[in-house]
Amino acid sequence: MNRSALSPHLFRRSVTVLGLALLALVGFALPASAHTELTGSDPADGATVITAPASVTLSFSEGVQDFALSVVVTGPDGTQYAAGEPVADGTSVTTTVNPLGSAGIYTVAYRIVSADDHPVTGQVTFAYAPPPVATTSLAGSAAPAAPASSSLSSSASPVTAAADRSPTSSPVPRSTATAATAASSDTGTPFWMWVLVVVVTALLLVGGWFAWRSRSGNAG
Fold first, then answer.
1. What is the SS3 assignment for 97?
2. Which residues span the domain enclosing 43?
3. What are φ and ψ of residue 88, in 5° steps?
4. How many independent structural domains does the chain possess?
5. What global pTM score does this model have?
């Protein structure tokens, strides 16, 4: 009788103990499963910089072990810009960077080992957009060259004036122009041909008139 009365009580106590044990296990498991994560970077992920950084720093949520570190900085043309080995300092990893090349998107790929011996990999990107300093300086240096061209044109002006006063450009005398006009008119039909046409036409008319008179006389 007493054993059957105690059974439900023992059952509830057993369930409570098991529940507390499960909660404790879950509580211990959650911190262990939360691995180190990237919390920030310099340059920041997705940022645009106008000055090439001398180094790249990655910050993590937990400590980083100082072995098996890898940080690779790749430019838009595929060139690698990381210099030397990355250095871990607590929760951050820093690597020096060679002078960047052309403007574009740069990728920072990393691999670290967290304090709980778990490897963590990932990448961030930043845009490099330097101002066009070289174009401005070239334009500024080319500006003083303008007076030189004007001086050349001014020095060449007497030559041009002399060429304008050359004999080939002098006006043609009136008599020469008249002779040239007459010569050009001579290229048409010769005058004697017109006289020949008039004479032949007159002979044909006279011959026709005599032929008509002779026929009229014979008919009478």
1. strand
2. 38-128
3. -95, 135
4. 1
5. 0.49
